[in-house]
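Cross-check.
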Amino acid sequence: MNNRTLTLLLLVLTLFNPSWPASPLLAKDQPSATHFQIPASDEGLPGAGPIRRYDWFKNLWVKRRQMWAQQIQQDQNALVFLGDSITQGWNADMGGSFDDVKVANRGISGDTTRGVLLRLEEDVISLNPSGVVILIGTNDLEEAASPEIITGNLKLILAALKKHNAKMPIILCNVFPSSETKKRPTAQIKKINQLYAAAIKGDPQITLLDTWALFANANGDAKKEEFPDLLHPNKKGYARWAAALRPILATYDFLETQADDFTPEPGFTSLFNGKDLTGWGFHATTPIKKPKKPNPNRPTKSIVKEAIHFDGKTTSSDGRYVAKKGRLIVTTPAEGRRIQQLWTTREFPGNFILKLEFRATPNADSGIFIRKPQLQCRDFPLAGPYKDLKNYKAQDWNEVIITVKNGLAHCTCNGEVLEASLKVPATGPIGLEGDRGQMEYRRIRLKELP
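Predicted model, tokenized:
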């Protein structure tokens, strides 16, 4: 039977049998298994460092990539998860963790940064992804690659993604903690993550998610209750990873696309309308002295020469504060850490009750200014200072209630006391601060008291 006859036969089968694939590819159109095989040598290949060639890995590489080649059309514009066995183990739909988001899992167990670089064009870029979530690098360590080699490959991966689409959001996850018993010592993982952060510093297209701090124990290793083999997360571990990603995905409009439907209680006035930054602005800042010695860990501080009001604006002039669907978002700074404060344009003398809710990505750092003094508002279990809260909900919404009476502020989070009697001035505005990570605030309202 020639190809023309076969094509006609397949067309007839399609017309008379709806369950038959709508557009089957002919055998001659399918890339062969040879096409997907790992090259026999490293000569002429991009990147540096290890490419695995164990028999089990070569077989898996071919099997998964052949399967994906048949899904290119159906996976167009998906949110792509790219990585190794940790990503592969989340299954094709990422465990159903992201509602109705179209996702594509492009993880291959055992893969390295250089392996990802080799398959990036066909497995990821060909999908024209709407976004990419990357977790890669741990297997390179097992193969004795240096953090510098690993980071060099990551830079090439990111450059290729950015070249394909300069506006596509890229979420880079810190390499998860593991164990020296797995040939993945803490010091090496921390070094990789430091180099990753330095590699993307100042790049607003890439958001760094602190998934190392999320999972590390006091010694910097993985926890048995979340990583039974000290390498791969269990159901609990995947749930925490998903929770950490959701706020970022919501900021990029993958999730929570409906506005927060909330009406303040009687007697309360909204300080944030949920749609734009009306009533908020930047104060002029005092000049900053240039430090005598450079310190890469010192946060950048924003300079504002004259006060700015953002009435009717959905984004602050520097892009740090964004109003979106009921949320006032303090976005992750491209610098890694950047101090910036947003203030109400109105002052609040006398006594009042201030209520709001906040959500923090792992290890995020922010703050709430009560006229002038700052109440630390962070991902408390990781960033402190209130690390022993029993009611705090990590990467979820938490309610803060601040009651100001006679110059003292009583502050609680989900009913637990943060500060019993914080001294505050007689009058002043309400402020929010950004430092590191992403913070979100919503349902900001105030009731004046006699």
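The chain has two domains: 22-251, 269-449. The first helix runs from residue 3 to 16. Passed to J.P. for a second look.
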